[in-house]
Design goal:
heterodimer, A: about 325 residues, alpha/beta, Rossmann fold, 2 domains, seven-stranded mixed sheet, six-stranded mixed sheet, 13 helices, globular, B: about 280 residues, five-stranded parallel sheet, two-stranded antiparallel sheet, 7 strands, about 40% helix, about 10% strand
Chain lengths: ~325, ~280
Amino acid sequence: MGTTTTVKTKFELKMGVATREAYGQALAELGKTNPNIVVLDADLSKSTYSAKFEKQFPERFFTIGIAEANMVGIASGLALSGKIPFASSFAVFICDKGYDQLRMSVAYPHVNAKFCGSHGGISIGEDGPSQMAIEDYALMCALPGFTVLVPADEFAGRALVKAMAEHKGPVYMRTGRPKAPIVYGANDTFQIGKANVHGDGSDVAIIACGLLVAQALVAQSQLEEEGISVRVIDMHTLKPLDEEAVAQAARACGAIVTAEEHVLEGGLGSLVAKAAALSHPVPMEFVGIQNTYAESGTPDQLMEKYGLTAPHIIAAVKRVLKRK
Amino acid sequence: MSNQPVHPVDKLRRIALHMRLDIVKMIGAAGSGHPGGSLSEVELLTALYFRVMRHDAKNPTWADRDRFILSKGHGCPALYATYAEAGYIDPGLLNTLRKLGSPLQGHPDKRMLPVLEASTGSLGQGLSIGIGTALAAKLDRRDYHTFVMVGDGEIEEGQIWEAAMFAGFHKLTNLTCIVDNNRQQLDGFVKDILDPAPVAEKFRAFRWRTAEIDGHDFEQVIPALEEARAAKDGKPTAIVAHTIKGKGVSFMENNPEWHGVAPKPEQVQAAVKELEAAAV
């Protein structure tokens, strides 16, 4: 397991920058020290924030045009030539339109190429379901050898972008559009494949990723006030999953709730359930998108309507505790 | 420069014949595979590896080597035969084609056979990978050239035209796309399924320079490849090589049935006899 933070004070939602912006910030930093980093984008560089890299290193930035399949293939060729390409677009476009290429040109030969899908989940808001990736965890985790990352906030985002540059092999990171509540500080550390654990509660473990980590921490504060002892696990690496953290949580708490901005099929909940089933089966509840596409609306309205806020996590905790 | 000796054309013809024999025998031994589209590639691969490309079998990871990517991955028996001829792999491996544990997988697998520049087999992807290696050459100020071979059926895939648009727009002179224009695909003749003709005209419209050649005539193949490699006019080159699917084996030539069927032992024998007779 990674670091365990002791929770002493009530968690309050204080907004930082979006994880997509953290991605751009980290790339621009990495460009200074690593001349092998090459950045590609498919006509969304202002939205994915890869433009932050372009501004400083225009000779190492390629705008591919609206052609995601070609972009993924080009990233493969660059990686095969010793470069470390970072290719970005909206998560739904890079994963879905580039999927055969991610499989055939990247995962199968296991090339050292990095991909970032921004605008993950339904919290993009008004643009609606055509732009919302709610299947990307399942798609990317299904590719053998891929590492899949979902940062919770800007600190996790910047640190994990650096980790993905150092990691040898294909990596996918999902980032989000809206400003993300601050969960961490500059001194927190992140390691691929090692969950960050918040608190050592023993009644229930909430295992979350992305924006749902902050919601889980809000839920934790409220549940602790009711006398329910909660640990929150930020599973920022979906693959390889920190199975040890899941096993420890299952043994220590005897109940698990997962929370993710993704359909329940093939996402974080499925992965955690498998890990728990193999180590220490316990009652589980799953917070996520229920076999549906969402719609236009404000991010807050959508997260509420589709069941991805702290009250929904609290309700799931109450359900799972009854099953213990 | 290349550590490969420059072979005269008569030597190239002998190599091509030997490769055809290898292709027929290895697919026969495997019991499955794609003979038609392998036999159509032979002169193109022979000219690349024994005359035009800068490469060194003793140093397969040489940073300045020319790259060859077989985008039409099902034609890999011809590439494996080339590797054996050029000294990249032990010729004894050829009869392990498609067998469990063999580096000579049914379609090219770079994990199993690292000398491959890319893993291919899902059509349409090799040209984009070639753009990546060509861009890397520019970034690193290296003068190696990237050659990608696609099939004329393969260019029905949309990704090919995304790549063609990009390479032309970005003036990737260090990239050549060879179209093995053998006029057939699995279900029949390309002209009856989704005819991409006029192919050269399409590439020109995407800002490429083009050449149309007889893909079995070394007197046309060699100059076209050499000109493409030497080009400095700010355009990638597309070479539309008119070829015969199944070339060299009369019962396979121009018969779509031989796209993905292995010859039976007696058919291998007949093919070997015919190829050897033609050599005399």
